[in-house]
Design a protein that fits this description.
Structural class of chain A: alpha/beta
Shape of chain A: globular
Largest sheet of chain A: 8 strands, parallel
Mean pLDDT of chain B: 97
Strand order of the largest sheet of chain A: 7-6-5-4-3-2-1-8
Shape of chain B: globular
Oligomer: heterodimer
Mean pLDDT of chain A: 96
Number of strands of chain A: 8
Distance between the termini of chain A: 43 Å
Distance between the termini of chain B: 61 Å
Number of strands of chain B: 18
Strand content of chain A: 5-15%
Radius of gyration of chain A: 19 Å
Order of helices and strands of chain A: HHHHEHEHEHEHHEHHEHEHEH
Largest interface: A-B, 28 and 23 residues
Low-confidence stretches of chain A: none
Helix content of chain A: 40-55%
Radius of gyration of chain B: 22 Å
Strand content of chain B: 15-25%
Low-confidence stretches of chain B: none
Strand order of the largest sheet of chain B: 13-14-15-12-11-16-17
Number of helices of chain B: 15
């Protein structure tokens, strides 16, 4: 990070001046650009390629109060082998669960290569003390989580207390370190902005920069519990932010739209957005993820349709 | 690499006849002359069809048919005329895919634009003026404004069907009848529109379409039976028309060239400004009279903006106009391509720095890569003359006053764009820019309710909106 950027978090005033000095986002223009990219027509070989990439980018998610070890085990089996009849279907990127189920997921996935992500920091509202948030993060990391999906304190952000948000992210980032286990690196930190509550695109851009400055490895749109969630224009604004952050600091940050991505069409639109905003460098599960659950079956259905020319009914794809 | 596979729109939806006649008095009739003209697909140079080349005698017949129809058409209650216009608008919507494909074939513009911009605007224009037909007494031109008579209309090749709509919809709504001459390189959608007039049972002679080139246009403009002349095209031809109709008593509207400034301030939303600059000059291959062909950028953000602009240009997709993912289509004609090349070479010779993204051009057809010139001075010809192609001249300014001065320092005055997050500056600029349209934080946005027209050498009269009615009423 450049020296000037290291100073921006020295005080709330400095942070505010920096974030409010970023170029604005014109809502009409951003919506139009996203809508135009949504008209791209991805067919035949391009579609087949995009479907497999999208499957590899899925963070298969279950975040319900009713989640059980059994449910998580079933989801993990699907993550490793999304279509039991077709071994050519790639694995998904990760599963995403609550902290108390991380150990179950780690056990079920074993050495499959599918990562375990855990939400933390009083997900989804983020309304708790910093100590609790840090402790929850440490708990999930200790249980073996590869990735932590934290939520920011939207109340603090909207009230202008950017430094509080910054320091929380930094503290959670520190808790991602795996103390005493040199064999594994620190857990990757995804910072959920909950863009549906930030409301304006200017806020989305500022929150993205704030998270990246504080050490986020990924910026993520939403918890999935608030509407609107991962819209195309919000994802566009976040992609622009990671692109600009890379050129300003040399550090690359990933993006994860989550919530509301239900169809293959939705997923492919996201990939087009990545392709034409930040390019090839982000078209990889290490740098772009799709937080979703129901989209996987639609991707499988479209994949099979492309291979066989026929649609199979929903009962031919597993529900886990 | 995410390579988009070809996604061509099917051309089977259009049925192009090998040969077309003239549309006069509601019938297809042969030209009295023997001259025929081939219209080609500029993306492949393939001949699409042969069209008649109307002679003076043909124009005379067409004006006669329009005159004959004027009596009943103008006497018809506005609410009845509206029914025909609404019907035409609906048929255009129903047949929009066919019209869009035909437009892209004949003109070379990407199907994404003909489908998502041209056709929706064409239908909207007919719907809008259909709504005025029975409300002319409330338009501000007196309680019962009268039509002018026969309108002779000559339109360009850049938006063939949209310019037809801009001309025909208000003329018919006001009770005039028309003789329209489409451009010689893009006659096909106008001829399909003639079919649509028949499908809508429009009374014979209300709309007449005569195809041809400059001589046909001159015959139409100079015909003594024409009461109103409407022209969209080059300033050069506009001058000729103004000269030839002077003293004739004909009412004239001219919509001519432009050299619009797209002005980006340092507090602009940069990503959207970049999109606006791209849309301003590369929309429709830059074949847009109101194109933002001069980028005026504040010096303090010039490097940043240019960097972002070049990055963005590298993602533009040039190629087959019928591919749904194409952003930049073909240049409309060999003649236009030659003109763009000539002015671009001149820009280099004058000392401006030329840049284009890596952009392979197809072997056949007329193509020009998106191009920007930096280091351009006000005195360079590429900063003064209309290129009418995908060529952007970049100039810088230091203060708002300097931006206004440079923006206005052109013989044209059709449009301008202002990019800033500061509302008060937008208003301050709009007050001072001598341009018919000033877009704020957007560019090349059109709406039938919004008047469009120029200052200075960009022409006179307004099209669109309530203002557009004046051109077709005896007021």
């Amino acid at each position: 990070m450049t020296a000037s950027l290291a100073d921006v978090a020295s005080s709330n005033v400095a942070l505010r001046n920096f974030l409010h000095g970023l170029p604005g986002v014109d809502r009409v223009g951003a919506d139009q650009r996203a809508a135009m990219l949504g008209t791209r027509s991805i067919k035949t070989t391009a579609k087949a390629w995009a479907i497999d990439l999208a499957i590899r980018m899925v963070d298969l998610t279950t975040l319900e109060g009713a989640d059980t070890p059994g449910k998580v085990r079933a989801m993990c089996a699907k993550a490793v082998r999304p279509d039991p009849n077709d071994p050519s279907v790639p694995k998904v990127a990760a599963v995403c669960v609550y902290p108390d189920l991380v150990a179950q997921a780690v056990g079920a996935l074993g050495g499959s290569g599918v990562k375990v992500a855990s939400v933390a920091t009083a997900f989804p509202s983020g309304r708790s003390s910093l100590d609790v948030k840090v402790a929850e993060t440490a708990f999930a990391v200790a249980a073996g989580a590869d990735e932590i999906d934290m939520v920011i304190d939207r109340g603090a952000f909207l009230s202008g207390d950017y430094l509080k948000v910054f320091e929380e992210i930094a503290a959670v980032k520190a808790a991602c370190d795996r103390v005493g286990d040199a064999s594994r690196g620190a857990a990757h930190l995804k910072v959920i902005l909950e863009t549906g509550e930030l409301a304006t695109y200017d806020n989305v851009r500022r929150a993205s920069w704030l998270a990246m400055l504080a050490g986020a490895d990924f910026v993520k749109t939403s918890t999935g519990k608030v509407q609107p969630a991962a819209t195309l224009p919000v994802t566009l604004v976040m992609l622009e932010a990671v692109r600009d952050f890379l050129s300003a600091t040399g550090r690359k940050v990933g993006v994860k739209p989550a919530g509301g991505i239900r169809t293959t069409k939705d997923a492919i639109k996201m990939l087009v957005l990545v392709n034409e905003t930040v390019g090839d460098g982000w078209l990889d599960p290490d740098w772009f993820r799709l937080g979703a659950s129901s989209v996987l079956n639609d991707l499988l259905m479209q994949r099979q349709k492309m291979a066989t020319g026929r649609y199979a009914g929903p009962d031919y794809f597993t529900l886990d | 690499m995410f390579e988009y596979a070809p996604a061509p729109e099917s051309r089977d939806v259009v049925d192009i006849k090998p040969s077309y006649q003239l549309f006069i008095g509601g019938e297809w009739v042969d030209s009295e002359g023997d001259n025929r003209n081939k219209t080609i697909n500029p993306a492949s140079e393939e001949v699409l069809a042969e069209v008649a080349w109307a002679t003076e005698a043909d124009v005379d017949r067409a004006v006669g048919a329009a005159r004959k129809a004027f009596g009943t058409w103008s006497a018809m209650p506005g609410s009845e005329r509206a029914k025909y216009l609404f019907r035409i608008a609906r048929i255009i919507q129903e047949r929009s895919r066919e019209l869009a494909v035909l437009e892209s074939l004949d003109n070379g513009k990407p199907i994404r634009e003909s489908r998502d911009v041209d056709l929706p605007l064409v239908a909207a224009h007919f719907f809008y003026y259909a709504g005025w037909a029975d409300k002319l007494g409330y338009a501000g031109y007196g309680p019962d404004p009268r039509p002018l008579g026969v309108a002779g209309q000559v339109i360009p090749w850049n938006f063939p069907l949209l310019m037809l709509a801009w001309k025909i919809a208000p003329a018919l709504a006001c009770g005039n009848t028309v003789v329209l001459k489409p451009a010689e390189t893009t006659p096909l959608t106008a001829l399909l529109f003639a079919e649509i007039c028949r499908q809508a049972d429009l009374p014979p002679g209300v709309v007449n379409i005569v195809t041809g080139a400059g001589e046909t246009g001159a015959a139409l403009v100079n015909h003594p039976g024409v009461d109103k002349v409407a022209f969209t095209g080059s300033t050069e031809v506009g001058r000729l028309i103004a000269r030839s109709v002077a003293g004739s008593g004909k009412k004239v509207t001219l919509e001519l060239g432009g050299k619009a400034a797209n002005i980006v301030f340092d507090d602009a939303a940069l990503d959207q400004a970049v999109e606006g600059v791209v849309n301003g000059i590369f929309f429709n291959q830059g074949h847009v009279c109101c194109a933002g062909s001069r980028l005026l950028v504040q010096e303090s953000v010039a490097d940043e903006l240019l960097g972002a602009l070049k990055r963005r240009l590298a993602t533009l997709r040039l190629g087959d106009p019928l591919d749904k993912n194409t952003d930049i289509g073909a240049i409309n004609s060999a003649a236009q391509l030659a003109k763009i090349r000539e002015l671009s070479d001149l820009g280099e010779a004058e000392g401006a720095e030329r840049w284009s993204p890596v952009c392979p051009l197809p072997d056949r057809g007329f193509w020009f890569p998106p191009t920007i010139f930096t280091g351009v001075a006000q005195s360079h010809r590429i900063a003064r003359e209309e290129v009418f192609g995908p060529v952007l001249s970049v100039l810088t300014f230091r203060t708002p006053a300097e931006a206004v001065e440079k923006a206005n320092n052109t013989p044209f005055g059709l449009s301008a764009g202002v990019w800033t997050e500061k509302g008060s500056r937008i208003l301050w600029m709009a007050d001072r820019l001598r341009a018919g349209v000033v877009w704020a934080n957007t560019f090349n946005r059109f709406d039938p309710a919004s008047p469009f027209g120029g200052y200075k050498e960009s022409g006179y009269g307004r099209e669109g909106g309530r203002h557009g009615l004046e051109a077709y009423l005896d007021v």
